[in-house]
Specification:
Length: 558
């Protein structure tokens, strides 16, 4: 009997020791850092009430330290104590980025690239954890890497062992974007903040906010007080394919006040994400025509569109009130959004009405526009509108982005082309010296299914499959098509979540994740680092983090 009791006590003691043993951090994160040198024979152990220090007089460093404290507690339960004492702290955040370059007498410090501004170093040794960067954004990126390195276990030991390591990292591309379409379906500010948090987790830095569509106008314009309240409301929404004509009979609406937009901008900026608003023009404007039918070519009434697809009803290119309307809207956009980039769409603008419209034809004649064999006179009328808007934005110190249709009829050097109809638009724009963001639909449109077996996923946009492996395989610099000089025009890559068939937050995150993980390695990592099979081995810990922060994701990866 004594032997049995002794065995039980030994078993319980062993089990308790196992429970209390430290859990081990792992630096195989997504996206993969540029350089990781690990010494697994030695480690630093993080425990409760250890200290984290920064220059507390710097509000950005203080905020980033607070973020890291929150993330460590959320995942491990360990509570860190924030202090200003850098010498004695266990974790130290500093803007003391080491450099080997010694300047000659009279030589100026070279200007940093956008990527270098985000660079960081994480050093972990017996003294603790040092995070060094040139700018606070680098500290934030490093804190996210450390966050994703933490072990995620159901039973928390209260201790984390960090193998000694030196991580040196910076992103490959300066532009790492995600589009969320809120024109087709309205999403709350609360959801958008969660969406931005997920973007930040993956190292993204550009939130492309699609605010206007035929199916809904979502931006408050104070000069036109009825535009958003009326233009945001559609009477119902089609369910199933367009040709079935089956509708849900439920009104759908919602828009963002300018204060809402400023709050999103503020929240995103704290996570080093720039918000790029899109007001799509001169097409995709039926919701505006609903409020201002005088801006259409045919007059009469225009309902806010209730089904999907491209509308023939566009702004009248020959009506001078059209330009007044656009400039008024964009002036207010500039006052709300500080982004250097403002997206003007420019895609899918049918010219049927313009060909029939006396005002449009008179404007074409006034401007002396004629078909040149490649582009019609109506195409060139749209280019005239684009150039007028571009000059208007230039006066406000902004650059425009447009979908690749803006190349038709000519384009100035300040405009940025977002190539979506495959890669041809991007190649053409880069060869002409324009800055380019690669966003080809077959590699980046995450409203499309991600699994070959359609029955295993929610129904969404029909057509081709955009799997995680497909996204991962894309090379934005197109080395087989562009010279090295031309490749320098490629700013980066963006994935796009259109929402015709994505109406709810859980579905939106399902479409986004884990495909954003695949996209993040395209955006962040060097080509020689990429290996999809290795990516899949690193994915389970990231999906555990999705569970902790409470976002839905696709459980299968193809």
């Amino acid at each position: 009997m004594k032997k049995i009791l002794l065995s039980i006590c030994m078993f319980l003691a062993f089990g308790n020791a196992m429970t209390m043993s430290a859990q081990v951090a792992d630096y195989n994160v997504i996206p993969l850092p540029k350089e990781v040198k690990t010494d697994t024979t030695q480690s630093f152990t993080l425990t409760n009430e250890m200290t984290i220090a920064c220059d507390v007089s710097n509000p950005e460093l203080l905020r980033n330290a607070q973020f890291l404290c929150e993330w460590v507690k959320q995942i491990s339960g360990i509570e860190l104590v924030l202090t200003g004492d850098m010498k004695s702290a266990n974790i130290r955040l500093s803007l003391d980025y080491p450099t080997n370059k010694k300047l000659k007498k009279g030589e100026n410090t070279p200007e940093l690239t956008e990527q270098q501004k985000e660079a960081y170093i994480i050093s972990i040794n017996k003294k603790g954890i040092d995070i060094q960067a040139r700018n606070p954004v680098g500290i934030f990126r490093a804190a996210q890497t450390l966050r994703k390195s933490l072990p995620i276990e159901k039973k928390r030991s209260g201790k984390i062992e960090f193998p000694f390591v030196c991580i040196k990292d910076e992103p490959r591309f300066e532009y790492r974007g995600v589009l969320l379409d809120c024109g087709r379906n309205f999403y709350t500010v609360e959801f958008i903040k969660q969406f931005i948090d997920v973007m930040a987790l993956h190292g993204c830095n550009q939130f492309h906010w699609h605010l206007t569509e035929d199916q809904g106008w979502r931006f408050e314009v104070k000069s036109y007080p009825m535009l958003a309240p009326k233009g945001s409301m559609r009477s119902e929404t089609i369910v199933g394919p367009n040709h079935c004509n089956i509708y849900d009979g439920i009104p759908h609406g919602g828009y963002y006040t300018q204060d809402d937009c400023r709050e999103v901008v503020r929240y995103a900026a704290e996570r080093y994400i720039n918000v790029i608003p899109e007001i799509d023009l001169p097409g995709h404007m039926q919701s505006a025509l609903h409020v201002f039918p005088n801006l259409g070519c045919k007059g009469g009434s225009y309902p806010v569109k209730t089904n999907w697809g491209v509308s023939r009803e566009v702004l009248c290119g020959g009506n001078p009130e059209t330009m007044t309307f656009l400039k008024t809207v964009l002036d207010e956009i500039c006052k709300v959004f500080p982004s250097q980039y403002i997206h003007i769409g420019g895609d899918e603008c049918p010219k049927n009405r313009w060909k029939e419209c006396p005002k449009c034809q008179a404007k074409i004649k006034e401007l002396g526009l004629k078909s040149n064999g490649t582009h019609s006179a109506e195409n060139q009328l749209q280019s005239y509108i684009n150039r007028e808007i571009e000059m208007f934005m230039k006066e406000r110190g902004r650059d425009i982005i447009g979908w690749d249709e803006i190349l038709e009829g000519g384009l100035s050097g300040r405009s940025i082309v977002m190539s979506w109809r495959g890669i041809k638009g991007g190649i053409s724009a880069a060869r002409q010296g324009h800055r380019v963001i690669m966003s080809p639909n077959v590699y980046t449109y995450i409203d499309h299914p991600q699994l070959k077996e359609l029955g295993k996923q929610p129904r969404t946009t029909d057509g081709y499959i955009v799997s995680a492996s497909k996204i991962y395989s894309f090379e934005p610099l197109l080395p087989d098509s562009l010279t090295q000089d031309q490749q320098s025009s490629i700013l980066g890559q963006q994935v796009n979540l259109w929402t015709e068939r994505v109406a709810y937050p859980d579905h939106a995150f399902y479409q986004l994740l884990p495909r954003l993980g695949a996209a993040s390695e395209v955006q962040w990592c060097l080509p020689e680092q990429k290996d999809f099979e290795y990516f899949k081995t690193r994915l389970p810990r990231l999906t555990k983090l999705y569970q902790i922060i409470g976002v839905n994701y696709c459980k299968n990866v193809e």
